[in-house]
Structure formats: structure tokens, C-alpha cells
Amino acid sequence: MGEPDLPDFYNDLDRSLRAAWSLLACGVKDRKAPAHTPVLATNGDSGPRVRTVVLRACDPETRRLRFHTDRRSHKVAEIAADPAGAVHVYDPKQKVQLRLDCQLSVHIGDELAQEAWAATRDFSRVCYQVMQGPGEAVSDPREVPFSADDSKDGWDHFAVISALVTRIEWLYLAAHGHRRAEFLWQEGDWHGRWLVP
Ligand SMILES: Cc1cc2nc3c(=O)[nH]c(=O)nc-3n(C[C@H](O)[C@H](O)[C@H](O)COP(=O)(O)O)c2cc1C
């Protein structure tokens, strides 16, 4: 009786870390991957706030993830008040959960926002042309006004959220025994250790 088919990262911290970043990177390219739509958590006035967002970019070298949003959305004010955030992904096919601690920053009108805006398509720009801010009350959902002015293409409302990852918690579910690890960014490198699942 040999070992059941286990992934190469099963008992290997470095490979688990690489697999975590690879899962995130796939989420940028593959619209069907669960990592394409992670949950982003911020701290609101009265407690934690969570919402689904599209993962637009992921760079393991700089430890940064990128999301796009409307600068008038509640999350932007929450990040300004408290930059601590978290990101959650569960990929049921891979049987991997990732919990990331992040420092969040908002970019409005700067070079990063300009680059990101240049890469957006017209249909994605439409949602930034809504005249009232996201989350404002409306009396009739059929009458949410969008800008009729062609020069207002949504750029004024566009914001990039950049997440600098400071801790990664990895959980791999396996019948043979789960594997849980944490990776902390300290003194310029990732330091991993196994945890009881
Ligand atoms: C599949 C999916 C993808 C979403 N992608 C984004 C996104 O990329 N950016 C965004 O601001 N909101 C996105 N939303 C909407 C947010 O979940 C949320 O409702 C909205 O941003 C308001 O959040 P806030 O009031 O906490 O700022 C998405 C929702 C879903 C269901």
C-alpha cells in the first residue's frame, strides 16, 4: 500500500506558500476560478464589513493584490479610517482556503489608478457613471440616474484598492489529514510554520 496521491505541497511549507500565490494569480486570469471573486473585509464603524470584489491583479514579488471600486463606496471611507483589512478565498476544487491579512490603500487619480483605468473596458466604466454614490438610498430602483454627459466617463469616481499582504493563512483539506500553515512577512521574507488544522 503506497501513499495516496497527495500534492507536492502537502508536507512542504515553501511549496504551500507558492501554491497559495499561484491560486491567487489564477484568480486574476480565470473568471471562473473562486479566487477571481474573493471576499474583502474592512473595519466599519460598528464592526467588520465584508463584500465580494473582483481580483484584478496579483504580484507575489511585491505581495500586492489590486481591486477596483467607486471612490464614493463605503469601503473607501472605511479604509481611510483604518487600513487594516483581510481577504478570504475558498477554492472547493483545490480544497484550499486562504485567509490574508493586508494593509489596504486607496489610489485616486494617481499613476496606478490611471494605468488601471486605461485597462478597463467601456462596459466596466458604466458602473462608475452612476450619479449617486453606491449605497445611497433611492426611492425607485428603476430611476437611478447615470451621467448623460459623455465627458463624464466614470474616471472621476474610479479608485484602486491596493492590498499589501502581511500574513497568509493556508488551509488544505485532505482525507489523509488537513494541512494548515501560516506565513508571516518579517524582515524582508516570508516565515512559515505549520499550525494544528
Ligand atoms: C461577483 C461580484 C463581484 C463584485 N465585484 C466588485 C468589485 O470589483 N468592486 C466593487 O467595488 N464592488 C464589487 N462588487 C459589489 C460589492 O460586493 C459591494 O456590494 C459594493 O462594492 C459595496 O460595498 P461597500 O458598501 O462595502 O463599499 C461585486 C459583487 C459581486 C457579487
From TrEMBL:
One Pfam family it belongs to: Pyridox_oxase_2
SUPFAM superfamilies per record: FMN-binding split barrel (SSF50475)
GO molecular function ontology, one term from the record: FMN binding
Domain Pyridoxamine 5'-phosphate oxidase Alr4036 family FMN-binding: 28-106
Taxonomy, superkingdom: Bacteria
Protein name: Pyridoxamine 5'-phosphate oxidase Alr4036 family FMN-binding domain-containing protein
Organism: Dichotomicrobium thermohalophilum
